[in-house]
Amino acid sequence: MYPLKFKPIYKEKIWGGVALSNNFGRDLPSDSIGESWEIAAHQNGTSIITNGRFAGQTLMEAVKEEGDKVLGSSAKEEYYDKFPLLVKILDANAKLSVQVHPDDEYANKHENGELGKTEMWYIIDAKEDAKLIYGVKPEIEKEEFAAAIKEGRLEDNLMEITVKAGDVLYIPTGTVHAIEEGIVLAEIQQNSDTTYRVYDWNRLGKDGKPRDLHIESALNVINFGRSPREKVTGLEIREDGYVRRILVSCSYFTTETIDIIKNYRDKTDGSCFYIIMGLKGSAKLIYKNGKVDLKAGETVLLPAALGEYQIKGKCKLIKSYIINPEELKTELLEQGYNKEDINMIEGL
């Protein structure tokens, strides 16, 4: 097995722009690209492998051929039918709708067996004083929220925060959120495309009509009364030549950033795959049978059977994988980290 690269799937959006060209030198098909699906195996977009013997095949065709050599021995049975993660880069040239995502149970029942959508964001770039909607004010209850929608005063009920490059946010299902203008971010999420719009800033779609809202469904899944969410701190782990920061660990994914000064060594041990996205700088990913370039804005999948590899070059990466959060917690405790340290990781 070898590191798999993919052709990005571009999604034109009313709120999209050209930041993926400006930031990463991408050749974009239009000037309103809102999403680049970096690794996807969904009915609304499926990644095509661009390198090696699987070039021209879809991700799931490679999974069908190689099985746990790609997914890993710990992969759940359902992963062989539906890849568990969807990795994107988003360009919010204008505000996205205020929205919320359902959990697995609700989505399965009401969205034809679809998954829920827990996600996390890493802010790659942001204009000065850029903002996000990140939750509902804790004193607001369902009835008041519904009334505010009808009366056109919803914005007064929302939590808004300022963000900058390098900030991280964890967005479990039921969290109301919206990316506002001037932000480019990486999104790691469950493999779902289900979104319930609550409010769309009174704008019109390309057809000159207001875009559809999903008020009833949204009200059914929003977690009201939750304390305001904070930006993710993460647990910093300093090693020789690099710094890891474990950001989020939930039942759906674990993510960490890796700041590499010179060299980073690791291995896939056969239990799970890794997804690595370049955030800054450039590097070479070297494995047993070869090497691939890795630059900012580029994403690769390291199959579970890849084995030992190293990444050489001054760069910053985000690494995503699936592990039982309790196993991670046990590992960290055994390494001498205390509960206060571990609580800096969201999702645990």
UniProtKB/TrEMBL annotation:
- Any matching Pfam family: PMI_typeI_cat
GO biological process terms on file: carbohydrate metabolic process
Residue ranges of the Phosphomannose isomerase type I catalytic domain? 5-109
CDD domains reported for this sequence: cupin_PMI_type_I_N_bac
Cite the GO molecular-function annotations of the record: mannose-6-phosphate isomerase activity; zinc ion binding
Q: Which parts of the chain span the membrane according to its record?
A: none
Which residues bind Zn(2+) per the record? 101, 119, 177
InterPro entries (alphabetical) = Carb_Metab_Reg_Kinase/Isom, Man6P_isomerase_Firm_short, MPI_cupin_dom, PMI_typeI_cat, RmlC-like_jellyroll, RmlC_Cupin_sf
Print the keywords alphabetically.
Answer: Isomerase, Metal-binding, Zinc
Quote the catalytic residue positions.
Answer: 197
What are its cofactors? Zn(2+)
Residues annotated as domain Mannose-6-phosphate isomerase cupin: 247-322
Q: Which domain of life is it from?
A: Bacteria
Q: How is the cofactor bound?
A: Binds 1 zinc ion per subunit.
Name used for this protein in its record: Phosphohexomutase
